[in-house]
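Table S2 (continued). Query chain:
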Amino acid sequence: MQELVPVLLHSLSRIPVSAAELQEGGDKDSAKDKSPQDLTQHTVVMGVTAGAERHCAELQQDYSHVCLADAASGLHDGELSYPSHQAFAYGMAKMKYIVNALTTGSDVLYLDADVVVLRDPFPVLLKSGADIAVAVSDCGSPATEYVVKNATALAMDGATGASAEQRALQAGPAASAAAANDPDATKYSTGVTFYRSTPGALRCAYSLLLDMSTLARQGDEAVWEQERFAAFVPMCARALDMVFVELPQEQFGTVCGAGAGYRAGEQQVLVHAASPDTQLSQRAEVMRRVLGVEEGEVKEGKGKGKGK
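Corresponding output:
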């Protein structure tokens, strides 16, 4: 919360949102407000520890986001890096938050804290017609064949007793399925994921959460949300005849290494500093470099920093 979220919020605060865009996106209440708005006014920051909750509230003195807390998460402060059990647990908590938001009728753009936004992403996302969209990157997880025995059937076919997800898999593996060691495989990076508030998107998100929780109860210690997403969601979307979009890297980019010398392209909408082997401070440095700001220019709560 202290290293990355201030930089993410700083990037969002620089992007104005017009009443016309809010109206088009279905946010009619906000569209009636004629005062200047930026993307932080449409951002919810979820804190999973007491310290994160406090710092999120301090950041509200500089930005217009909403803070929510989850005292039942069981997570704690520190580096929740893969493959720690905290990182696995966070993936399950993350899907819980997404499912909860979808049930309110809201479209959800989930962003990891190590993302910086350069342009309003919603015109691109809405124009794509996606029910579910996800970033792709070299450091993502490849689509692999979904294991039927772990499927959670939410709606059973009366004739065959098979769920829609199971029937789709029995017809063949996902079109994009590939072995993890295939360098040409499409790899999904769920640190940037968009869900439209549609019945199908909610069903796939909820089914993914159930899939993960089932594996965890069975004693599987390595239930990584990104890997399960890559195996399950493309197949689920196809089974329910939804639009599943792989976001173009030239617009939704990812920095997989240290990020030295990285420069965002003209078409870049956002950049994910998804370097799994780097410390939080190093990722924050990459984020600031992409934004073209110095550390002191980013507000950090309680009026700290030099401004937006």
